[in-house]
Write a structure and sequence with these properties.
Blueprint (H helix, E strand, L loop, with lengths): L5 E9 L6 H25 L12 H10 L1 H5 L3 H32 L5 H12 L3 H6 L11 H13 L5 H15 L10 E4 L4 E6 L2 E7 L6 E5 L10 E6 L4 E11 L8 E7 L5 E3 L4 E2 L3 H21 L8 H29 L1 E7 L11 H8 L3 H14 L3 E5 L21 E3 L6 E3 H22 L1
Helix pairs in contact: 1-4, 4-5, 4-8, 5-7, 9-10, 10-12
Length: about 450
Amino acid sequence: MMPSRKICKTIHQYNKEPIPHEDMCKLQEIAQDYSKVKNYVYQRYGGISSLSKIYPGYTVQNEMTASGLRSQLGLPAVYFYLAVFDALGDIKTQWSKTKNDILDAIRVNDRFTPADRHYLRFVIKVSGCFDNIVNGKEIVVPKAMAQQFNDILAQMTNLPSAGVENLNKYLCRQVRRKLCKLHTDKEDGFSITERAYRYGMCGKKQGIFISTKENRKRVFIPLTDENCYNKQLYIKLMPNRSSIKIDVPIEVKIQQHKDYQNEIGISIGVWQMFTTDRGTIYGEQFGKLHEELVEYMRTASKTYYREKANNPGREKYKARKAKLDARLEAYINQEINRLLIQEKPYKIYLPKLPRNSIAGHNRKINYSITVWRKGFIRNRLEQKCKENAVEIVEVFGKGISTECSVCGASTTGNKDLFVCSSCGYQADKKINAAQNAIKRGKAEQQHTINK
């Protein structure tokens, strides 16, 4: 029998009663020191010269041990080294983003020949090459790839190109432009391993014991549930509410549905969350709920900045916004579940979403677009599809709402109704876009198979 497939998801635990001020201060001390350690790592190892040290990271660990920072802060080792590796993970992510940004710049640069692009992509992706180039050192290529590298250099010699030296300088300039030094001002949470916590009873209350900076001292926090975990957790502090939220990563079994046999195309909208290629709408109230949240944020922001000199505070605003956020997120989850149950898809074709645009002149609409929760919608859709073994196929989104799904002609016209000027086909714009999504997805897959 095949082993059951699992994926990771995050669940939450909450405190059952308000946390005493003294205990919250002890947790805040840990969070503040955790942030200091991360910023120290960002500053010391986030630059070009430390690139060779961050993989796999043991050099950084040893140097941080020798730095004396842990003794200076009085931070237990269980928190100190988690902060170090947490910061290292952020630095690695930042370097990955920088490399992807450079690859995008290379792709759209018309001055480069195919040989130039091949060389740049090679040295960016091959271990050791990129590090040495940006640090001004001689390129060292792994033996297994030496012949391929020599072939690339020979090709550049035979064809007009920018030259290896100029390409290396270009790469260095791009790194200087695109690499951002990391820094965090957040002091509202920290990661924690089993060595620093345990679940248990305190009197008649079930909760969690969390280690503090004091030797052999732990704070006890009663929880709303009696579940116990042996995972690395994240403690999110909310001192203004005398509360915490515990993020718990767990593995869940992927559900296999034999009756999920449909292929559907969907389009995501600002007002109606999902529209399928058959015209079914999911999330009809999304626009209304989202507009209520946006209007509250916009109005509250005006009031706050107008009365900022009088320091009216933001506690009521944060509490109300949290309630509106929770209601909207619950509705999004509900409608995604309904889509999967009713449509029974094994594959969903989805247009690649554009970046938020504020090109218009209506400030109210611009504000609404900038806070559109499309990222959350996409993440929740991906998570729930993974949990139910549903494949998401992202298709090219440019022009998808102006292209006729019947004849392929491009047409601009009405706001909500698509009318093809070539064949006369009429449909709601969202339905037409969803039909194009499934059409483009199937065409791309067929092209790949034939290729």
